[in-house]
Write a structure and sequence with these properties.
Helices cover 46% and strands 10% of the residues. The protein has helices at residues 3-16, 52-65, 70-85, 108-125, and strands spanning 32-35, 40-43, 47-49, 132-133. Helix 3 (70-85) packs antiparallel against helix 4 (108-125).
Length: 135
């Protein structure tokens, strides 16, 4: 099995069965994200709807940030956004399953889908209550 097939399977699995999906009450921070190009919408408590890449990215994110400090989450978010947008990205640490999103940078229209939850997470951490858009 090729690495790209494994990554594809991870994304399909997280889209079909998103981890940590549903409202978290009470939530420490909240933010809404919206990608008007394809209709992806999410609320960071992890509730929303979207394409397979958007849902899988949010699911992977929810697993990756659990149990980490705000600073660690901000750093991880920045690394993932760089991975999604830069062709010559080298992670500062092992990103584990998040590497399944690495090939997204080859599809510019999908970068916004994959990065929406990460930008929304950063807005939630910054206590910015406006809706985040990837436009």
């Amino acid at each position: 099995m090729e690495l790209s097939d494994l990554y594809r399977q991870v994304i399909l699995d997280h889209n079909k069965s998103p981890r940590n999906f549903g409202r978290l009450v009470p939530a420490d921070a909240e933010a809404d994200g919206y990608n008007p190009l394809c209709g992806d919408r999410l609320e960071l408590r992890f509730d929303g709807s979207g394409c397979a890449i958007s849902v899988a990215s949010a699911s992977l994110m929810s697993e990756a940030v659990a149990g980490h400090t705000r600073a660690e989450i901000e750093s991880l978010s920045q690394q993932v956004i760089q991975m999604l947008t830069q062709t010559s990205f080298t992670p500062k640490r092992d990103l584990g399953k998040l590497m399944a999103l690495a090939g997204v940078h080859e599809f510019p229209a999908r970068v916004k889908c994959a990065s929406l939850c990460w930008h929304t997470l950063l807005a939630a951490l910054a206590q910015a209550h406006a809706t985040v858009s990837t436009e």
